Every structure is written in structure tokens, then in C-alpha cells.
Amino acid sequence: MDPGQLIETNLPPIPAPIWFVQLFKVLGFTLHAVPMNLWYAGILIALVLYVRGGEHGQTFGRRLMTQMPIILAYGINLGIVPLLFVQVAYAQPFYSATILMAWHWLMIIALLIPAYYGVYLYSFGLRSDGPGLTAFRRAAGWVAAVLLVVIGWLFVNGMSLMVNPHAWPELWKRADFYGATLGTGSNIADATLWPRWLLMLGLAIGTTAVWLLFDAAWFASAESDQYRSWSLTLSWKLYTASMVWFAVAGTLYVITGWQSFKQMFGFPTVLLTLLTALAPGLPWLLLFRQVRAGQFPSRGVAALIALAQLGVLGVNAISRQVLQNIELKPHFDVLARQTATQYGPLAMFLIAFLLGAGVMTWMIWQIVRPGQPAAES
Ligand code: HEM
Q: Does this model's pTM top 0.85?
């Protein structure tokens, strides 16, 4: 069976220019990735450090976990932006894939709710009980960490199944109920699944490393100088580990997905591929410079390092987008779709986006503005 038969081809035109859709999909995913990385790898790192990291490890564990409810709220809301644009321009392959794996896909919500509660229980426990956190609250934190890693895996599963139409007919036949699918499929047989999952985890460790330093520079004025110099050393070590992880997972991803990746190595796309591979070098170099000078960075330098990591995630998001288009092209050429721009909804989206971004920025400003009491958590 031709997998293309499972994609609706009689499509209405898309309601916004395709460059606009791709721009906001990539921008939205980059913004989602920052907080998502902090709960994806950050919670596990914080929990381990809280138990095994000595005095400063405990401080970082406490800090990140008390910030986590806000980080989760930001990240989940920011996930809506790319979701919106996936649905606008990629609805046909997106829904085909997520219907075939419907139970797994819906499970994201079922897992996210207890994960959210777990984070709250741990975080509020730290505020009320301090270091004497009850065993129940500790367990809730660990359960949340594991659930969030599983949710990440389900996302990778869904997004990789979406670009793997060859797997669909078989998944459909296996769970066929009088022509309808039972939705029990999964992309587990796809060799790119695990490297892709590992790649995002590697990036997430890097983002957590940068947050450790950024938080120490911007929000931790109540902590000691020793904590700050500890955070610089650990940030650099953690970032180095994440870079090695990223390189190994990235290489495996390229090898397992070579059929599509070979186009990523043609000119001029190869320049983007190289940039994506080398991008983590910049935050690493900036961190290394500080470590070598034995000097804790100023707020400005810490912001520069954070910006460099945002660049790493941004370039990665652009590459993912280019690759997604390449993978789908044989069955679904998104760039060739007709457009009939609907200016009213487009303007409403832009207004809502700017208002939302403004409110979020204002909320962050309330925390960091001069004259505020030091953000203890
Ligand atoms: C419930 C609110 C969430 C929404 C609406 C959301 C939305 C999205 C969307 C639309 C993408 C794909 C972006 C694209 O390809 O352009 C994505 C990717 C991803 N999300 Fe989220 N997300 C949410 C929560 C989470 C949670 C709780 C996790 C847990 C770790 C997570 C982890 C991931 C990962 C790992 C990817 C990358 C998957 C891949 O393509 O390899 N997200 N998210």
C-alpha cells in the first residue's frame, strides 16, 4: 500500500504564507525548548544534586525545584505556538500519525497531570518543610521527573512517526478494526527514534548547565560567593558532558536517518548542518573563558552565554524544520501548498502573540527588576 493514500491530498489552501507558518513554528518551538529542557533533564539533575551534591548541590536543587512550577507553566503555554502551526500547515501527516498512535499520544495528558502535581508537591514541600522534605514529597518529585522524561519520549515518538509515512500502512493493518485503527501504534521500530530522543536530552543537559550559571548570576544574590564559583565550575563540566552527548547522539541520528539526512549534506544546506553541529561550541568557549580566568561572570556575560545557548536551540529548530520538510516531501510537499492568506485571523494571532509575550516579559521583569528583594528560590 502506498502510504501517500493515508494522507488527504485534496487540501484547502493554507491561511497564511508558508514562510510565516515556518517562522512561527520554529520560533515557538525554540521558546518551548528552553523551559522544556529545564524540566526534561533539569529536574533529574536537580534531584540528584539535592541528595548527592553536598551543600551547594542542595542549594541548586532547591532553587531549580522551587522555580519549576513557573518554568512548567511557561513551557507548556509556549508549546501551544508550534502546535498551532503544525496543525495549520502539517495537519494531514500530523493527524494521520497521532491517530495511529492515539493511545500513546493521549497518554501525554494523563501523564502530565500527575507530573505537574508531583512538581508542585516537591516544590511547595521545599518552601514549607525546607530540607526536612517528607518521603512522600521526595517520591513525588522523582515520579514527576520520570514521567516528564517519558512524555518527552512520547513527543519524539509522535513527531518521528509523523515524518515516517512508510511505517503507517503496517501500523494501520496491525490495529485495524473494520477499517478504523485502534490507535495502539508506535514508532518504536524506527531506528531514528532513540538517537533523536537522546539528542534532545543532550541539548537539555546543556540548557540546564547554562541555567545553573544564569540563575546564579541573576537571581541568587542571597547565595554565597562559594555557591557562585561552584556553579561556574559545575556549569562548565555539565556543558562539556552535554556536548559529548550531543555529538554522539547526533552522529547516531545522522547514521540511522541517512536516507533523509543525505540532503542535509548537499550545498547549501550543509552550511546549516555544520552550524547546528558546531553551535554548542560557542557557549562552551564562553564558559571555558570564565573558568580559565577563575572569574564568576558578570550578569552581562551570563546573559551572553544564555543567548548563545538560545542560539544553539534556535539553529537546531531550523535544522529540524528543514529536515521535516525533506522527510515529508515524497508524500506531502508543504512548500508547494497553495496559500490564501486570511488577514483577519493572522492579525489577531499577531496581536495575541505580542500581548502574551509582553505579559510574560513583564512578569519576568517583576522578578528581576532592581530593588526587588533577592529571589530566594
Ligand atoms: C502539554 C503541553 C505541550 C505542548 C502543547 C507541546 C508542544 C510541542 C510541539 C508542537 C512540539 C513539536 C514542535 C515542532 O516539531 O515544530 C513539541 C516538541 C517536543 N516537546 Fe513539547 N509540548 C508540550 C509539553 C511537553 C512536555 C511536558 C514535554 C516533556 C519533556 C515535552 C517535550 C517535547 C520534546 C522532547 C519535543 C521534541 C520532539 C521531537 O520532535 O523530537 N513537551 N512539543
A: yes
